[in-house]
């Protein structure tokens, strides 16, 4: 069946088109864009007058591996949700399990640097599961530097995952910040040879930890320059904090000199991770100018009272998810720093979305609306709507064309070399994948908060994934599971 979207303000960031047009979709592909297109008998015709119509958002940094989480992201305008910062291992199992369960959105994974190191250095067998992966993050055994033999072993594991179709390499360097910088250089050389990007949570900045082996943001530009690898700097807002001006200036200088470094940010002043992460130790928090009270346990809402309690919860369950407040959004200066990360030239919007957890321990639900009491970070439900509210509606820092460039077109281009299937994404011209979002430009806003994090965003009126409606008239379609795998080209 064909679908005709009639009369919307169509945005194609690939060509720069921004104007009133109809969009015709057939068999999961955009087959025509123009005014006055004719519907045929049996076509589904939808009036999108007054709505902004563009390519669905491509989230390079989503740890949502569930139907529940992907449905929240669908209501936020996302059509492709990829876990590239952390990745999963083994990659074949990750793809097989997602396909078996069904997904509302397209999905994909990078090769997991952390899991490969944990297997070689700590004997921890990976199971392609984010919950067990979070538990591993606080294990100090895998956080040490590798011997030459160990380095060769885990590099071989990573290379095997790339050969099997991983979308690059996810590097959680910030969780093992004291490792030998030579290992990161060796990994980048491997990625360059494989034609695959890296996606890095950088190690600490020198201002935060003068003892760091190398400044985190400087390192990624240096290594990109030395190897020629395409390197993606994850959530520059959270890893830079109050040093964002210095970091962005250094990254811009590196890019001007030829380093292939892309940057992402999200519109929140708090991040989320496992309580056992190295950078959440009491001494590391002090280095950041933060205190234990900056940490909130995700499942219970407990704000950590003092250092003793922090040490206790870290010992009890290293994988327990928590929120870390690194910027105060009520402070105009901190809000300005967050704004700088988003307006940085070609900065990509990415959510760092987390699964939803309920008190019974589950992270999956096929109910809609979601059952009450779900705990997650509000960025899971609200990253893109909040970004559009802040950057287009309120500050007018971006046009709608620029918004779709940052949320759809640029993320797809990060993947072009490694994944041929990305070439038809992030655009809305003839031949493009029919991953489409139609937005009410006056109503789009986030609704999720830190205390009510599973409230869906408002203003996404229609969402199509491979031409299949997932959101219709602002309502989620619970029978829609059109998500397909996006994979690297196997070698």
From TrEMBL:
Gene Ontology CC entries for this record: cytosol
Domain Amidohydrolase, residue spans: 45-471
Single GO term (MF): hydrolase activity, acting on carbon-nitrogen (but not peptide) bonds, in linear amides
Matching InterPro entries: Amidohydro_3, D-aminoacylase_insert_dom_sf, Metal-dep_hydrolase_composite, Metal_Hydrolase, Metallo-dep_Hydrolases_sf
Pfam families: Amidohydro_3 (PF07969)
NCBIfam families according to UniProt: PRK09061.1 (NF006560)
Name of the protein: D-glutamate deacylase
Organism encoding this protein: Amycolatopsis alba DSM 44262
Lineage of the organism: Bacteria, Bacillati, Actinomycetota, Actinomycetes, Pseudonocardiales
């Amino acid at each position: 069946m064909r679908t005709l979207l009639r009369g919307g303000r169509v945005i194609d960031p690939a060509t720069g088109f921004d104007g009133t047009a109809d969009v015709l979709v057939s068999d999961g592909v955009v087959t025509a864009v123009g005014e006055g297109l004719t519907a045929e008998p049996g076509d589904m015709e939808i009036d999108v007058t007054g709505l902004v119509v563009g390519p669905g958002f491509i989230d390079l940094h989503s740890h949502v591996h569930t139907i529940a989480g992907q449905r929240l992201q669908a209501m936020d305008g996302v059509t492709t949700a990829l876990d590239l910062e952390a990745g999963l291992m083994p990659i074949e199992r990750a793809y097989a399990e997602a396909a078996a369960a069904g997904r509302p959105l397209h999905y994909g994974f990078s090769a997991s640097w952390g899991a490969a190191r944990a297997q070689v250095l700590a004997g921890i067998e990976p199971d392609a599961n984010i919950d067990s992966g979070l538990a591993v993050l606080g294990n100090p055994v895998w956080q040490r530097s590798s011997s030459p033999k160990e380095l060769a072993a885990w590099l071989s594991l990573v290379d095997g995952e790339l050969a099997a179709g991983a979308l690059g390499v996810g590097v959680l360097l910030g969780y093992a910040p004291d490792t030998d910088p030579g290992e990161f250089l060796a990994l980048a050389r491997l990625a360059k040879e494989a034609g695959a990007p890296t996606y890095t949570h950088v190690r600490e900045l020198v201002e935060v930890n003068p003892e760091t082996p190398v400044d985190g943001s400087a390192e990624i530009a240096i290594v990109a320059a030395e190897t020629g690898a395409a390197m993606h700097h994850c959530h520059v807002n959270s890893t830079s904090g109050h040093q964002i001006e210095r970091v962005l200036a250094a990254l811009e200088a590196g890019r001007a000199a030829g380093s292939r470094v892309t940057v992402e940010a999200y519109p929140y002043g708090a991040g989320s991770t496992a309580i056992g992460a190295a950078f959440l130790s009491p001494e590391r928090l002090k280095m950041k100018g933060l205190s234990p009270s900056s940490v909130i346990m995700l499942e219970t809402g407990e704000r950590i009272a003092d250092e003793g309690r922090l040490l206790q919860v870290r010992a009890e369950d290293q994988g327990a998810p928590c929120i870390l407040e690194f910027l105060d959004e009520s402070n105009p200066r901190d809000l300005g720093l967050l704004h700088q990360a988003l307006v940085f030239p070609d900065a990509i919007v990415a959510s760092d979305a987390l699964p939803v957890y309920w008190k019974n321990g589950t992270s999956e639900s096929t109910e809609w609306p979601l059952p009450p009491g779900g705990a997650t970070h509000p960025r899971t439900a609200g990253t893109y709507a909040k970004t559009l509210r802040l950057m287009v509606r309120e500050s007018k820092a971006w046009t709608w064309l620029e918004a779709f460039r940052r949320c759809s077109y640029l993320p797809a281009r990060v993947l072009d070399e490694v994944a041929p299937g990305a070439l038809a994404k992030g655009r809305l011209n003839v031949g493009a994948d029919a991953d489409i979002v139609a937005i009410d430009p006056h109503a789009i806003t986030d609704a999720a908060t830190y205390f009510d994090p599973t409230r869906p965003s408002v203003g996404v009126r229609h969402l199509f994934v491979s031409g299949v409606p997932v959101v219709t008239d602002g309502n989620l379609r619970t029978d829609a599971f059109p998500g397909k795998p996006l994979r690297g080209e196997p070698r």
